[in-house]
Amino acid sequence: MGDQSDGDKRAGVEDKNLLQYDCLHSNMSHGQTKKSEVKNRRYNAADSEENAQIKLLFQTGFDEAELKSYISVIHANVYQTIKVLYDGSKELAQNETDSMKFVVSSENKEIGEKLSEIGGRLDYPRLTKELAEDIETLWADPAIQETYAHGNELQLPDCANYFMENLQRLSDANYVPTKDDVLYARVRTTGVVEIQFRYDQTLFEDEQKNRMMETKELFDWVLKQPCFEKTSFMLFLNKFDIFEKKVLKVPLNVCEWFKDYQPASTGKQEIEHAYEFVKKKFEELYFQSTAPDRVDRVFKIYRTTALDPKLVKKTFKLVDETLRRRHLFEAGLL
To answer: Which pLDDT value is given to residue 116?
Structure first.
């Protein structure tokens, strides 16, 4: 092969310096991090959902064997979800003023205790029809439904309602996960981090700390690291579909970072107003934390919905076009 042109070499350097900051999505499930680990890895995806989305969009998709490999993950999600709900109902019954509405009916308490015990195991049994019926019974209990409505106070997986509504299919002896099942599946990964966008929730590992404040601190810390001084950033504000519903019920100013937020309207106008406010906060943080001689590095913010393949594909295309233009600029061709 011939020698690389200066433009190619510069493009290669730029590509190596790119930190795809999708670990800092405005995302909405579990996650924790150690700042000392950030510089040692290039973030690819927050968890199995984003990994699966990329595979479905840009690779060959899943064959049946790969789909079946998600069965244990999906069944674990089911058990973890019902445990969080049952244990959460007991906690809310002790702490809330109107406590009785969180008390599970006497006939369902035995089921709840059994499922909570299963959900606390390291190894989960395969979801059978009998266990699925027990979960359906407990899920239908008014106290559990009331607890679900208070999910922002618990570490409740985003997949909760989806899997609870599909229990019979998930427990079939010949069950093979669908693409949607895989996209909803959650896996806590090691070394790859998802920081949360649930501005009204606390961290899984520190219930006294707001998740969005942790996101702010981590982003600020990364921007100031010498090893990233030439690094471009792509910030994905992910799970916008959940944000759309959340912001109309829970005001942004419940988060300390957003305490100066003032609602401007209702409906879609309010959603856009809230989104632009959050986006501006990250932009301000970027310029405050970036050295004056480095403000020209690429910093782009995208909003995505990981379960919408068309939107994710469109976002990746925009990212690709941005990087191509950057490469051409570095090579002196623009």
So the answer is: 94
